[in-house]
Amino acid sequence: PLSFAQQRLWFIDRLEPDNPIYNIPVAISLTGRLNVEALRETFDEVIRRHESLRTTFAVIGDQPRQIIHSTQSFSVSVLDLSHLSEEEREAETGRLMAEEAKRPFDLSAGPLLRLTLLKQEELRHVLLLTLHHIVFDGWSLGVLVQEVAALYTAFHSGEPSQLPDLTIQYADFAHWQRTWLPGEVL
Q1: I need a labelling partner for 6 at 20 to 30 A (CA). Which of 15, 57, 74, 180 fits?
Q2: How many whole angstroms separate alpha carbon 96 and alpha carbon 142?
């Protein structure tokens, strides 16, 4: 089942499809030599660890339900802007950031997370990360940043992930919430 918060967002999406108001866009400036393969591995592992990042939403019977997909490789789009002048690069980066923030998600098809890496110069990149609020919130950003830092460091060094598997996922909370607040109590 959906949590109550997810159900609200799902309902609003049904009322106003393709509205990007619940997109969470993040732009991260990266300085230094970047190992793009280690970055891809990092996000593959983050997505493997967190079921919510592999979740889409469908109506089954007459109820919206979370559909948790199996782990699969995630793509990171890479756009090389290094051939542009500094002014053109800044303008194109701003345009791409705005365009990405406004691009809607399809809650039934997913994925509900997008990554685009903008190469500014050899040692300077901007990572555009966009997620839908139905699977991510502001509090989760701190968790994501910590995990990405730990995983990228490990994978860049050729080491495996040192992060333990999660024992509780968001779908577990949604199920608990629905059983805790049934019928009359709700």
Answers
A1: 74
A2: 24
pTM (predicted TM-score): 0.91
Q: Give me the torsion for CA of 148, 159, 112, 138, rounded to 10°.
A: -20
Residue 18's Cβ-count burial label (10 Å; 0-12, 13-18, 19+) is exposed
- In Å, how far from its chain's centre is CA 4? 20
| Per-residue tens of pLDDT for the chain, all 186 residues | 999 999 999 999 999 999 999 999 999 999 999 999 999 999 999 999 999 999 999 999 999 999 999 977 778 899 999 999 999 999 999 999 999 999 999 999 989 999 999 999 999 999 999 999 999 998 899 999 999 999 999 999 999 999 999 999 989 888 888 888 766 766
Residue 119 has φ and ψ, to the nearest 5°, of -85, 115
Contacts of 115 (CB under 8 A, 6+ apart): 43, 74, 75, 76, 77, 127, 128, 129
Q: Is 106 exposed, middle or buried (0-12, 13-18, 19+ CB in 10 A)?
A: middle
In one-letter notation, the amino acid at residue 54 is R
